[in-house]
Write a structure and sequence with these properties.
Elements: H1 2-37, E1 60-63, E2 66-69, E3 74-78, E4 86-91, E5 96-98, E6 107-115, E7 121-131, E8 134-137, E9 141-145, E10 148-155, E11 158-165, E12 178-187, E13 190-193
Antiparallel strand pairs: 1-2, 3-4, 4-6, 5-6, 6-7, 7-8, 7-9, 10-11, 11-12, 12-13
Length: about 200
């Protein structure tokens, strides 16, 4: 009888473990789908007519003529092939979402930070727009080294970038104290400052 009870207990424990694993997998997949649905109006295929999810944290951007592919908002590449030193590119906070080209579909603007392990932290502004259902990457704009970003938003079809920088005559060791706000727009797939 005792042997039968032990066998029954083992079966119950195995069933409970399978139920818990199933619940964890379900919650993980559901939360991933919820995150991606925010970008559901952008199609990434030139030949497809249906909308496909787009995530600016998992996309390829061009910085200084070099392609950078983000995976979950991060890219790490060798500075020199085979070396231990890495060039790390990350997204500053989270992407701004809104319409940049008037097609009533979600576009994105984000600030990317590059760190090569030295003293510099280089910030670039990039945008991704849907153009007739195809996702297109704009040019990148170098914003500055070791600035203090405040926010990136999309307002009235324009990117609004706010950050704190140094005066032109101040050394890089000086604390940033000058608040700067820039407005940029996308025309013909080119991101440019509005004067």
């Amino acid at each position: 009888m005792e042997k039968q009870n032990k066998k029954t207990t083992k079966i119950i424990i195995i069933i409970l473990l399978l139920i818990i694993i199933g619940l964890v997998v379900y919650v993980f997949i559901d939360s991933k789908d919820t995150k991606q649905n925010k970008f559901a109006n952008i199609n990434t295929s030139a030949t497809s007519t249906k909308n496909v999810n787009f995530d600016p944290l998992n996309f390829t951007y061009t910085l200084e003529d070099e392609e950078v592919t983000l995976v979950d908002g991060i890219s790490k590449t060798d500075i020199v092939p085979g070396s231990a030193e890495k060039l790390e590119t990350t997204v500053y906070e989270k992407p701004a979402i809104g319409d940049l080209n008037g097609d009533k579909k979600n576009d994105s603007a984000l600030l990317l930070v590059q760190d090569s392990g030295g003293t510099g932290l280089f910030y670039y502004l990039v945008a991704v727009v849907s153009d007739v259902g195809v996702v297109k990457n704009t040019n990148s704009i170098f914003i500055g080294d070791r600035i203090d970003p405040v926010s990136v938003t999309i307002e009235n079809g324009k990117v609004k970038l706010s950050y704190i920088d140094r005066n032109v005559d101040e050394p890089m060791t000086a604390e940033p104290t000058v608040k700067i706000t820039k407005y940029l727009e996308v025309k013909n797939n080119v991101l440019a400052e509005v004067k």
